[in-house]
Amino acid sequence: MSNPYVPLFILLALGFGFAALSVGTSLVVGPKRYNRAKAEAYECGIQPSPRAEGGGRVPIKYFLTAMLFIIFDIESIFLFPFAVAFDQLGLFALVEMVLFIITVFVAYAYVWKRGGLEWD
Amino acid sequence: MSNAPGTGEAVLFWILGPLAVLGSLGLIFAKKAVHAALGMALTMIILGIFYIAQDAHFLGVIQVFVYTGAVMMLFLFVLMLVGVDSSDGLLETLKGQRLATAVLVLGLGGLLTAALGSVTYPEPAGVKSINEETGNVSAMAELIFGRYVWVFEVTSALLITAALGAMVLAHRERLGKGRNQRDWSKRRVLRGEYVAGLPAPGVYARHNAVDTPALLPDGTPTPLSVSRVLTARDQVTTPERYVEAEDRIAGQIEEDSSR
Amino acid sequence: MSALLTVAHGIPALLAEGKDNPSADFSDTPLWITVIKALFIFVYLLVSTLIVIWFERRVIGRMQQRPGPNRNGPFGLLQSLADGMKSMLKEDVRPKAADALVFTIAPLITATMCFIAFAIMPMGGEVNLFGHRTPLQLTDTPVAVLLVLAIAGVGIYGIVLAGWSSGSTYPLLGGLRASAQMISYEIAMGLSLVAVFLYSGSMSTSQIIGAQKNLWFIVPAFFSFFVYVITMTGETNRLPFDLAEGEGEIVGGYFTEYSGMRFAMFFLGEYINMFTVAALATTMFLGGPLAPPGIAAINDGMFNEGWWGLLWFTIKLWLFMFMFVWLRGSLPRVRYDQFMKFGWKFLIPATLVWVVLVAFFRGAQNGWLGEGGVNFFGRTFPVASLALVGVVAVGALIVGWWWDSRAAAKEAAAADAPQSSIDPFAGGHPVPPLPGQTLAEPTRTAAAIRSEAVTDKEAIRG
């Protein structure tokens, strides 16, 4: 087998084929009975609430969580090769990594202390 | 070592390359901001596949790993900053902005062409042989924690800056502590009112919805059972219809049983 | 901790050449065999899904003292198949406000992506397949485990996009919750795997299995296993973390507006994702296709070879499935703020500390922190490891003492300090509290003062 990624594409094709086929079949086989109420958004039986201008926004505090996610994502990405090559890298890399983790932890501690992790 | 791509790689490129271009065009031209974000996700994933096709396993997977997460964040920022159904307004708000953009784009294009045109490539080290000898991830680690230690450590400073920036932009400190579930429940018990919570909205034989108030034992509807949001929106209905229907059914049942 | 030390030495030192490439040998695997294996995985997953849905309903039924589905086929085994056929014949409704393109591709993304990750799971040893010697694993790469995480990251798009494209309130909330859940628990999941990479020295699944020949990683990386199991429940939206589809709060969450086969695709995706995360847990911590200790020793490791692996792999997978069902049968859904708090304030920092600890132990084992060892029960422990254990124990004691004394001080302060609280709006303007004063949350809003008689509903509802 030449490329180890070819099998992934085979599985991808199988999965997509299955999904598309079953959804397509159900579109053909299934009944179609139009009803105006059916096409409304579902809101537990009440009249659908009017949407806000522009669709409404999500609170901005979510931004902080998203940003922290990216920060830790990057940290974990450095940790992966570090862990894999740990035995070859030696003590120096361990010290480097501890320094790095501590530095990022400072940011984390700051956000925690200021109440950025409270979810209310 | 030859640099010519194999047939498999060529086929892959000619299929996915145009798709990536389509994705990036979508990023620029899509009307809805979410569609633009999706176009970007597509392009990034395809770039990841390209890296993998060129034997840069770690880089390719990381590309997909990071950018799917990052574009997801972008998607959320769209929802947060612009709105759920936002689409581009074509109104020009800054005067002369388009002209300036055109000039700058041309300038950048010229600069890039000049710079990239004069690049001379050194003999490639050959990712394949490195993958065989040291292993892709280990070789990467040796570079990050060896030659580029300084850059790596500085990255942490960058991350701190990002966290601070997010705090400054998005964090709003509360003046006091808000009441939590426990406090509300304590308060309820102390006051001795509605200790078991408010009544649920009406459930009738032929109807069940949150906009219909429940009935008290004496038959009058209780406004407490309907969400105050619905009250403010004037969406509350009266239960009379359902009560009548219920009475009718009850009457029929009685008739049937006495027959 | 000393148990950790004992076992850490059971792990063989890695190949010194620094190879992180897969150890599985695919050289005798032509493309057509790969296709057959891919088909096998596909069918394996579909059949497992059909069975697990029935299994879940039966087991939960038993836990709740009712029979569960028992009509279609023996023991009701064909119930899930009948349900699938039924959803095929249902009407496919699309809401008026939906974004047609995204609404259509969202379920396809979920249903497609869930299959791929299984390709790198080692399901058995090397077997003879139509005259070729090939491992019971579709493929392996130097970054196989990361690949699973990356594919999961693409798969989550199906859920979030479904929520957004429905053009309805509940699905949007469900999609947002799903994305917050993903970002909060994916980090802890990735970090928990780092400890395993430290022990195995590779991200390829075949190498990770090879490194567990003597000792499964659940023992030296027990905390990672604990964190992984929690995060995998969170990542698959299963109870007690099924906030994205909490039916008591937001109807069905992201798939509220979906019906028929498109809904079935989300259903399929959720269950196959359960198998994927469980298979990854099996591979990373439970030795994948390796026979359980004891059985593995019989007849020179006979049960570790060939097709036997498939049996052990499947058994371990189904243990996780049972755990999923058990959790669902016994735990209520957590509250949203509790969920976020647990992820950000406990899982992430604790896992980071754990990773650093494991790295130091590994370093001590490599002799970087000084030579010299102590003999215990015929095994040699580096002095540095023992010193580390001591440092950790003392640190834990100090933190515990500090914590206790702080809690006691807080209690004492709360008991005798007279509460002087000010109403920040007493004079009409908001005023910050002086030192020693605490702030009273304004209880009466302008509206409440205006209509004194009207009950404050939020207060009562809680």
TrEMBL record, chain A:
<dbReference type="GO" id="GO:0030964">
    <property type="term" value="C:NADH dehydrogenase complex"/>
</dbReference>
<keyword id="KW-0874">Quinone</keyword>
<feature type="transmembrane region" description="Helical">
    <location>
        <begin position="89"/>
        <end position="111"/>
    </location>
</feature>
<keyword id="KW-1278">Translocase</keyword>
<dbReference type="InterPro" id="IPR023043">
    <property type="entry name" value="NAD(P)H_OxRDtase_bac/plastid"/>
</dbReference>
<dbReference type="GO" id="GO:0048038">
    <property type="term" value="F:quinone binding"/>
</dbReference>
<protein>
    <recommendedName>
        <fullName>NADH-quinone oxidoreductase subunit A</fullName>
        <ecNumber>7.1.1.-</ecNumber>
    </recommendedName>
</protein>
<comment type="subunit">
    <text>NDH-1 is composed of 14 different subunits. Subunits NuoA, H, J, K, L, M, N constitute the membrane sector of the complex.</text>
</comment>
<feature type="transmembrane region" description="Helical">
    <location>
        <begin position="62"/>
        <end position="83"/>
    </location>
</feature>
<comment type="similarity">
    <text>Belongs to the complex I subunit 3 family.</text>
</comment>
<dbReference type="GO" id="GO:0050136">
    <property type="term" value="F:NADH dehydrogenase (quinone) (non-electrogenic) activity"/>
</dbReference>
<keyword id="KW-0813">Transport</keyword>
<dbReference type="InterPro" id="IPR000440">
    <property type="entry name" value="NADH_UbQ/plastoQ_OxRdtase_su3"/>
</dbReference>
<keyword id="KW-0520">NAD</keyword>
<keyword id="KW-0560">Oxidoreductase</keyword>
Automatic annotation (TrEMBL), chain B:
<keyword id="KW-0874">Quinone</keyword>
<protein>
    <recommendedName>
        <fullName>NADH-quinone oxidoreductase subunit J</fullName>
        <ecNumber>7.1.1.-</ecNumber>
    </recommendedName>
</protein>
<feature type="transmembrane region" description="Helical">
    <location>
        <begin position="148"/>
        <end position="170"/>
    </location>
</feature>
<dbReference type="Pfam" id="PF00499">
    <property type="entry name" value="Oxidored_q3"/>
</dbReference>
<keyword id="KW-0812">Transmembrane</keyword>
<keyword id="KW-0472">Membrane</keyword>
<keyword id="KW-1003">Cell membrane</keyword>
<feature type="transmembrane region" description="Helical">
    <location>
        <begin position="99"/>
        <end position="121"/>
    </location>
</feature>
<comment type="function">
    <text>NDH-1 shuttles electrons from NADH, via FMN and iron-sulfur (Fe-S) centers, to quinones in the respiratory chain. Couples the redox reaction to proton translocation (for every two electrons transferred, four hydrogen ions are translocated across the cytoplasmic membrane), and thus conserves the redox energy in a proton gradient.</text>
</comment>
<dbReference type="GO" id="GO:0016491">
    <property type="term" value="F:oxidoreductase activity"/>
</dbReference>
<dbReference type="InterPro" id="IPR042106">
    <property type="entry name" value="Nuo/plastoQ_OxRdtase_6_NuoJ"/>
</dbReference>
<comment type="similarity">
    <text>Belongs to the complex I subunit 6 family.</text>
</comment>
<feature type="transmembrane region" description="Helical">
    <location>
        <begin position="65"/>
        <end position="87"/>
    </location>
</feature>
<dbReference type="GO" id="GO:0005886">
    <property type="term" value="C:plasma membrane"/>
</dbReference>
<keyword id="KW-0560">Oxidoreductase</keyword>
UniProtKB/TrEMBL annotation, chain C:
<dbReference type="Pfam" id="PF00146">
    <property type="entry name" value="NADHdh"/>
</dbReference>
<keyword id="KW-0472">Membrane</keyword>
<feature type="transmembrane region" description="Helical">
    <location>
        <begin position="100"/>
        <end position="123"/>
    </location>
</feature>
<keyword id="KW-0560">Oxidoreductase</keyword>
<feature type="transmembrane region" description="Helical">
    <location>
        <begin position="34"/>
        <end position="55"/>
    </location>
</feature>
<dbReference type="GO" id="GO:0009060">
    <property type="term" value="P:aerobic respiration"/>
</dbReference>
<keyword id="KW-0520">NAD</keyword>
<keyword id="KW-1278">Translocase</keyword>
<dbReference type="GO" id="GO:0048038">
    <property type="term" value="F:quinone binding"/>
</dbReference>
<keyword id="KW-0874">Quinone</keyword>
<feature type="transmembrane region" description="Helical">
    <location>
        <begin position="381"/>
        <end position="403"/>
    </location>
</feature>
<keyword id="KW-0812">Transmembrane</keyword>
<dbReference type="InterPro" id="IPR001694">
    <property type="entry name" value="NADH_UbQ_OxRdtase_su1/FPO"/>
</dbReference>
<comment type="function">
    <text>NDH-1 shuttles electrons from NADH, via FMN and iron-sulfur (Fe-S) centers, to quinones in the respiratory chain. The immediate electron acceptor for the enzyme in this species is believed to be ubiquinone. Couples the redox reaction to proton translocation (for every two electrons transferred, four hydrogen ions are translocated across the cytoplasmic membrane), and thus conserves the redox energy in a proton gradient. This subunit may bind ubiquinone.</text>
</comment>
<dbReference type="GO" id="GO:0005886">
    <property type="term" value="C:plasma membrane"/>
</dbReference>
